[in-house]
Design goal:
46% helix; binds nicotinamide-adenine-dinucleotide
């Protein structure tokens, strides 16, 4: 895979977890990275650390459920670098496991909006800029929750991540003729700080026992799959969902 020298990348959810790993690796491989997140402290720390270790990063503190703020932040990243070659949407997740029967009505909008509406806003803001130069790589994070009913997952999260896959295919269809690919990565069981917080020791033991690979994954293992789809070499791959789950959905 060639590097990302001369490219500009925006990574959402980059204050921590999979987004942080992705931002760090893209910067190591030459991209100028915009670290986008609503966690100001985390985003600033990651930006500083990338810059101090020889990479180039800018910080954008934005709530991606706010259209005007998202559009402004994407335009600012574009203005600074002159283009956006890569956009990785890793912001999202859910705060805790909850069953369908226990899920409060009020919890729906927050989870669906941060995982799904945010993707629509990012596409609305960034896709025209990519289309204008006939090049772009948009990669979004879905989840095994949208691929398999084997494990119990929260209903709002499962629905939002399934929506992400539909929107990925729709955007891939529409943007393909303009040199822009749109793909999804569907991870499972990643040892991010949030991932470790929401899983009980029993659930972790169950994952280790039932996974064909026999362990949880590290953030960088998901990031590497994301980054392949961001590469120039992945130009004939669009509208796909890449499962990165240690074989969990084949069982
Ligand atoms: N960790 C896992 O096991 C796992 C499994 C499957 C899918 N995923 C998905 O991968 C992605 C990354 O997961 P993670 O574990 O690294 O998550 P994380 O919670 O560690 O990081 C998510 C980041 O997104 C940011 N964020 C959330 N809502 C936002 C908003 N509205 N605007 C701006 N920033 C916002 C948070 O501040 C945080 O920094 C998520 O979309 C998640 O659903 C994770």
């Amino acid at each position: 895979m060639s590097g990302f020298e001369g490219q500009s990348a925006v990574v959402t959810g980059a204050a921590t977890g999979i987004g942080e790993s992705t931002a760090r690796i893209l910067a190591q491989r030459g991209a100028v990275v915009t670290v986008m997140d609503f966690d100001a402290e985390g985003a600033e720390a990651v930006t500083k650390s990338i810059n101090e270790s020889g990479g180039a990063a800018h910080c954008a503190v934005v709530d991606l459920t706010d259209w005007e703020a998202t559009e402004t932040a994407v335009n600012e990243a574009h203005r600074r670098a002159g283009r956006i070659d890569v956009l990785v949407h890793s912001a999202g997740g859910f705060p805790q496991y909850v069953s369908l029967l226990d899920c409060p009505v009020e919890a729906w909008d927050g989870v669906v909006n941060s995982n799904l509406k945010s993707m629509f806003y990012l596409l609305k803001a960034a896709a025209p800029l990519m289309v204008a130069v006939n090049y772009g790589r948009f990669v979004t994070l879905s989840s095994m929750a949208a691929r398999s009913g084997v494990n119990p997952n929260p209903p709002h999260y499962t629905a939002a991540k399934a929506g992400v896959l539909g929107l990925t295919r729709q955007a891939a269809r529409e943007l393909g003729p303009h040199g822009v690919t749109v793909n999804a990565v569907a991870p499972a069981n990643v040892q991010t700080p949030r991932g470790l917080k929401i899983r009980t020791p029993e659930r972790i033991a169950h994952i280790e026992k039932s996974s064909p690979v026999g362990r949880l994954s590290e953030s960088h293992e998901i990031a590497e799959a994301v980054i392949f789809l961001c590469s120039r070499e992945a130009g004939y791959i669009t509208g796909v969902t890449l499962d990165v789950n240690g074989g969990a959905t084949m069982v």
